[in-house]
């Protein structure tokens, strides 16, 4: 009989969550680097360079890889021969570990969890509660896997009940393009097959906890239908040409993970959950000897990558840029932004809509005319930081507000992550505005371009408040120009055609 102390589980969970906030798994770094070396699309290659540079900076500085430090998911398997020296329940111990990790003074993590999700949506302020999957198994240890999953990738999860005779590969190939790039490729696809609807979803999430090993599978050859599907799906998805950040390229997924479970004869439940460029998970085992501590990797595990925007980058002063100026900006062009911008995401846009509807107008201190707004919810600053990691959030969530904002405020442009939907593109074209894309998964790197930060409205919203940032040479890409051309449409189309042409030539 093994005795597990309360503090050992709490401390182990807290340590693991701090660890994964700034250390990528080694297998992920290697896979991205290999994809970077193979990539022929310059835009995708640049995006992966920023992801790799950001990753190393976070490992060195012990700050979050992404501003979205995730919703915590825990898979815990408790041995039947374990007894607890604890006053709290297992769930309470895990949540206390989450609470301590996310409020750690040396590396504060962003609290993103909202209570009353269909109502008040009030932030719990400490990122609790976690989503916990608990299982009692044979043995005398406690096996724990923790993960922190960002909303951008989690929101792209898909579920379907196929007919038993339907093709899983065809469904995936049809579905992945509908996910856009808000899940921050390159990453992994986790697929759950079988069981029931909820079982398939859990299988898909759990599969993402496994290491990237598709190269090993290719070398030895598949031995089961699930392993065959991994290769078939990965090859088919990469042929779509979506590429890093959806800009078009050779690598969209680094691996495809599959877990399956027996299912009803009439059913074929399928769940697909992507993991983004901020892949974060860790594993530990408690055996009664004390808390489990994660072992830091060597910085030698990170490739020596440099990235230079080059002499062709357009330098823009946000304090003087005009509507006429942005008409000459070209899709795919690199722009370096300096000057002042405002921030705002879901809650701020909703509040602005309500203020306009009520006739009140914008709050004091918020003037969007001739300005740019950055879709971001930053991490709180620590030590001498101006602001914590501050990468972009998924822009499509603001699409339904875009026409209203452009029409009523005179906003010039928006900065965010991934593609815009057609309703937003139409509004951008109508108002001759512009949309710029920053790289998702490079939040710490982006934050280094921010020289000043202050809250100007809605402070009660926490990370969703409106800030004013002053930036110096913040790198972005023109993703939708003032004529409505979107690189997230043209880039993947061009690269899918190139990949198909090569395949025909090889045959």
Molecular structure report:
- This protein has 15 helices and 19 strands.
- By secondary structure, it is an alpha/beta fold.
- It has three domains: about 1-150 and about 300-305, no CATH class; about 150-275, no CATH class; about 315-490, fumarase.
- The protein is globular and about 75 Å long.
In brief:
It is built from 15 helices and 19 strands. The protein is α/β, with parallel strands linked by helices.
Count of domain modules? 3
CATH architecture label of the largest domain: Alpha-Beta Barrel
- Helical fraction equals 25-40%
Strand content: 15-25%
The number of helical runs is: 15
Mean pLDDT over the full residue set = 95
What structural class is derived from the secondary structure elements? Answer: alpha/beta
Distance between the termini: 62 Å
Shape: globular
Unreliable spans are none
Based on CA atoms alone, the radius of gyration comes out at 23 Å
């Amino acid at each position: 009989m093994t005795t597990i102390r309360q503090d050992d589980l709490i401390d182990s969970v807290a340590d693991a969550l701090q660890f994964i906030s700034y250390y990528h798994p080694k297998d992920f770094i290697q896979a991205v680097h290999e994809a970077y070396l193979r990539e022929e699309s310059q835009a995708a290659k640049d995006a992966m360079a920023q992801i790799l540079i950001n990753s190393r900076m976070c490992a060195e500085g012990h700050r979050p890889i992404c501003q979205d430090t995730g919703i915590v998911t825990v898979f815990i398997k408790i041995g039947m021969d374990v007894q607890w020296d604890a006053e709290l329940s297992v769930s309470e111990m895990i949540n206390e570990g989450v609470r301590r990790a996310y409020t750690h003074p040396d590396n504060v993590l962003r609290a993103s969890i909202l209570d009353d999700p269909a109502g008040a949506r009030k932030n719990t302020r400490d990122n609790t509660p976690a989503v916990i999957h608990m299982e009692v198994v044979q043995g005398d240890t406690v096996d724990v896997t923790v993960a922190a999953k960002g909303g951008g990738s989690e929101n792209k999860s898909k579920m379907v009940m196929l007919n038993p005779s339907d093709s899983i590969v065809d469904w995936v190939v049809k579905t992945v393009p509908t996910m856009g790039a808000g899940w921050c490729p390159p990453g992994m696809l986790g697929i759950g097959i079988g069981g029931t609807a909820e079982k398939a979803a859990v299988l898909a999430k759990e599969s993402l906890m496994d290491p990237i090993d598709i190269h090993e599978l290719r070398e030895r050859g598949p031995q089961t239908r699930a392993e065959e599907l991994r290769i078939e799906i990965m090859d088919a998805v990469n042929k779509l040409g979506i590429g890093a950040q959806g800009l078009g390229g050779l690598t969209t997924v680094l691996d495809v993970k599959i877990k399956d479970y027996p299912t009803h004869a009439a059913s074929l439940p399928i769940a697909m959950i992507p993991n983004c460029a901020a892949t974060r998970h860790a594993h530990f085992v408690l055996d009664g000897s004390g808390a489990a501590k994660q072992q830091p990797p060597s910085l030698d595990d990170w490739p020596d990558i440099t990235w230079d925007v080059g002499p062709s980058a357009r330098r823009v002063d946000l304090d003087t840029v005009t509507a006429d100026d942005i008409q000459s900006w070209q899709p795919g062009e690199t722009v370096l932004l300096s000057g002042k911008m405002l921030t705002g995401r879901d809650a701020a846009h909703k509040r602005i809509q309500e203020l306009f509807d009520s006739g009140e107008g914008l709050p004091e201190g918020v003037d969007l005319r001739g300005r740019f707004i950055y879709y971001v919810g930053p991490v709180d600053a620590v030590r001498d930081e101006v602001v914590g990691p501050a990468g972009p959030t998924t822009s499509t969530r603001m699409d339904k507000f875009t026409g209203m904002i452009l029409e009523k405020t005179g906003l010039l442009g928006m900065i965010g992550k991934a593609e815009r939907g057609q309703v937003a593109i139409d509004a951008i074209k109508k108002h001759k505005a512009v949309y710029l894309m920053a790289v998702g998964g490079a939040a710490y790197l982006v934050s280094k371009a921010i020289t000043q930060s202050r809250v100007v409205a809605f402070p009660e919203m926490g990370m969703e408040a409106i800030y004013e940032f002053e930036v110096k040479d913040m790198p972005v890409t023109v993703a939708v120009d003032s004529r409505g051309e979107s690189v997230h449409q043209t880039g993947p189309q061009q690269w899918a055609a190139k990949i198909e042409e090569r395949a025909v030539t090889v045959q």
